[in-house]
Design a protein that fits this description.
This protein has 170 residues and is of the alpha+beta class. Helix content is 47%, strand content 19%. It is built from five helices and six strands, in the order H-E-E-H-H-E-H-E-H-E-E. The strands form two sheets. Strands 1-2-3 form a three-stranded mixed β-sheet. Strand 5 and strand 6 form a beta hairpin. The longest helix has 23 residues. It is globular.
Length: 170
């Protein structure tokens, strides 16, 4: 009988995702956001989901441009406040994603196009392409689009002026 293969290193093993904990984060966040909506007298329904390794809370059903702000600044601030509310309750750092009115989904699509356009330009010119400053969410979407196209990108600069640089293939 053949020996069983040695167990994998703990570091190499896939992280275990605690769905119940993420659902609890979503519930806490939804309650917090619902309280904010009530205080501000805004309408909107709240949807909760788990996407990958994070809770996703979305406010839907109303036009809530005031809660998104110009370039998503208000949304980013609300997300951080919501993460703090979750942390205060659970004692754990949250990677919760907050979306309002589908803003993040439409922004993700636009950023994927931006990443693809940057890749095309870098492939055509062979030159490094720095992009405009972006939030961490926006940079991740662009990095994913660049990687999917087979090129490499890095973030440079300091917050709030951190930006993505796309590099030609080696």
């Amino acid at each position: 009988m053949a020996d069983a293969p040695p167990p994998e290193d703990d570091e190499a093993a896939e992280p275990v995702i605690d769905i119940e904990a993420l659902e609890r984060e979503g519930d806490i966040a939804a309650d917090y956001i619902e309280g904010l909506l009530d205080i501000a007298d805004f309408d909107g329904d709240i949807d909760m989901d788990v996407e990958g390794d994070r809770a996703l809370v979305s406010v839907v059903g109303a036009t809530l441009d005031e809660l998104i702000g110009e370039k998503g600044e208000v949304l980013e601030a609300l997300q951080e406040l919501t993460r703090l509310a979750v942390h205060r309750t659970t004692g754990n750092r949250s990677r919760l994603m907050l979306d309002i009115g589908g803003y993040r989904d439409s922004r993700r699509k636009a950023l994927s196009r931006l990443g693809a356009e940057a890749v095309d330009e870098v492939k055509r010119t062979g030159e490094v392409k720095p992009l405009s400053p972006m939030t961490p969410f926006e940079r991740k979407v662009v990095h994913d689009a660049v990687a999917a196209a087979g090129l490499r990108s890095e973030s440079e600069g300091e917050e709030p002026n951190r930006y993505v640089v796309v590099y030609p293939a080696d």
